[in-house]
Amino acid sequence: MSQVFDVAVVVGSLRKESLNRKIANAFVQLAPASLKLEIVEIGDLPLYNEEHDSATPPASYTSFRERIRRADAVLFVTPEYNRSVPGVLKNAIDVGSRPYGKSAWNGKPCAVVSASPGAIGGFGANHHLRQSLVFLNMPVLQQPEAYLGGAGSFFDEAGQLSEKTQPFLQSIVDAFARWIEQNQPR
Amino acid sequence: MSQVFDVAVVVGSLRKESLNRKIANAFVQLAPASLKLEIVEIGDLPLYNEEHDSATPPASYTSFRERIRRADAVLFVTPEYNRSVPGVLKNAIDVGSRPYGKSAWNGKPCAVVSASPGAIGGFGANHHLRQSLVFLNMPVLQQPEAYLGGAGSFFDEAGQLSEKTQPFLQSIVDAFARWIEQNQPR
User: Which of A115, A141, B4, B131 has its CA 20 to 30 A from that of B70?
Assistant: First the structure.
């Protein structure tokens, strides 16, 4: 039996009706049998403070780090806030990266999908995040790039993904599955 | 009598003994008579969620936005986390920028100082922040650039700023004072 990879999905918006969360849920559905995607919540992580590292960390820090550490790969799905990564998502990245030398992200293959109702599709957030991924030593899927503009029209009123968008999202998650297989730690 | 400008200082680290906080405090001391610098705390701002905008916002959001709105200028002093802006600071920026169309940051002249114990001096954080400042419409001091590397040696054991570093910090805050005067909203 072939391996099923555990993929932690981190969504950069806390809003319940977030477009990015809907897109993340679409990926959960579209994922091939070799991947099991699960959204990992980041809304209860207190703002990172290095003082937490020398004392008992908040319980939410510990469980978040353990969940990421357990994952074989990470999928980031994020809006853009002020032409960059939402503070909410960057805080989760900072929390997962510490204490120094014990980053939970280290070596995990990942992909970045950004989405917005506007035309630019979160490009600013997408590439700022990629700069952090260099330091975090996370091999990141290069193609297809995913700057999902006009994302307000991706879902109908019943929440169903449009047939126009589905093939592109499918191509992303399929390419990501190959990327994960290629980039498992040896 | 000439005008005294109110400068909100936003520090990107929550640690009490933070190097960046020490540098911010040094700027408070070095500021010319035309500036009054005050550190504005960001550690109690809950992670931004757009749902807050449609209901009653957290009290800390309201007071932070009012404090920034009252300021004539903003000085950012920040470390780099994972080659970018700390989530803590980006969250404060996101909070201040909302609700949509009512950004507290709009039009305020600002300066960015980044500092780290290492060699790069927070360059990654400094320039990621500058990308957000474009969108936020905050005229930002260009020169002198301030990537303060080796910042662990700036203060002696008594917390006194070294004589070697003081002139450069002075040149930054003096240039910033001129920048603020030039860039007041008309």
Answer: B131
